[in-house]
Amino acid sequence: MNRTVRLALWSIVFGLLVLGLKFLAYLLTGSVALYSDALESIINVAAAVAAYIALQVSAKPADANHPYGHTKAEYFSAVVEGVLILLAALSILREAYSNFRHPAELQAPVLGLLINGGASVINLVWAAVLTRAGRTHRSPALLADGKHLYTDVFTSGGVLLGVALVAVTGWTVLDPVIAVLVSLNILWSGWGLMRDSVNGLMDEAAPSEVVARIRETISTHAEGAIEAHDLRTRLAGNVTFIEFHLVVPGHMEVEQAHVICDRIEDQLQHDVEGAVVTIHVEPEGKVKHTGVLVL
Asked: Which CATH number fits domain 208-293: 3.40.30.10, 3.20.20.70, 3.40.50.720, 3.30.70.1350?
């Protein structure tokens, strides 16, 4: 088990720990806002599980049944996350509605807030670890997990301030209001997650800035060729598939054209993380005078 997979596994452990602490804070206080914060932690656990699955399955090499690899596995795990997010949001709204109808004073607010705050500190520290590891090991899954935890820390901070205000002022109506706001935030996060997953399954093209970098790389490293056209890209997890036609002089030998292709491919793999390049070589009679002109 490599370091990135171990970190993903520990994310599940810490996620369950934080989830338990936040539920304990809710049980002690009876605060529906703290309940909403606890349910939001389910998303963190689900995201950690998705990252673990993605790193495990995506690392498998291509085989006869999956010649393009297994990098789309993380998109399917996101479906499970989406279901959990929807259930969590609906549960929060149900509790908030009940609390609106029957407001209740908070029980042991100081102890509950301290426990919830301690859970948030754990999230903050682990988010820093994951973000640093994601950049060091160039792991999009770990980096995304770390960024998600940072977002959760900010949300929890707002919840803590709101619940503290309820405890000080006695305005119990604020408790369900905060819970509703958290549920809306959960639904927004879930929408973003599902949107990204659907785009990945639909072979979404690489971002425009990445495509611009690809075009520049081809243009400046295809010396000896005439042009490149019909450039296409698609994303599959942390892999970027790049395909294009490269037009070379008709008299050029196969070996010379192969040298140009190797030079372009090596540079694209250096400039675009996880690039898988396919180049179709054509004679100059196929020139279209469009696409990427060679400098």
From this structure: 3.30.70.1350
Tell me which residue of 102, 85, 100, 117 sits closest to 182, measured CA to CA. 85
Query: d(Cα 143, Cα 156) in Å, to the nearest integer?
Result: 20
The count of other CB atoms within 10 Å of the CB of residue 5 is 18
Neighbouring C-beta atoms of residue 98, cutoff 10 Å = 13
d(CA 96, CA 182): 11
Instruction: Name the nearest CA neighbour of 96 among 46, 156, 26, 44.
Output: 26
Q: What is the pLDDT of residues 216-235, one digit of tens each?
A: 999 999 999 999 999 999 98
> CB-based contacts of 59: which residues, under 8 Å, 6+ apart?
2, 5, 70
By the 10 Å C-beta count (0-12 exposed, 13-18 middle, 19+ buried), 30 is classed as middle
* Predicted pLDDT at 80: 66
Query: How many angstroms separate the first and last alpha carbons of the chain?
Result: 45
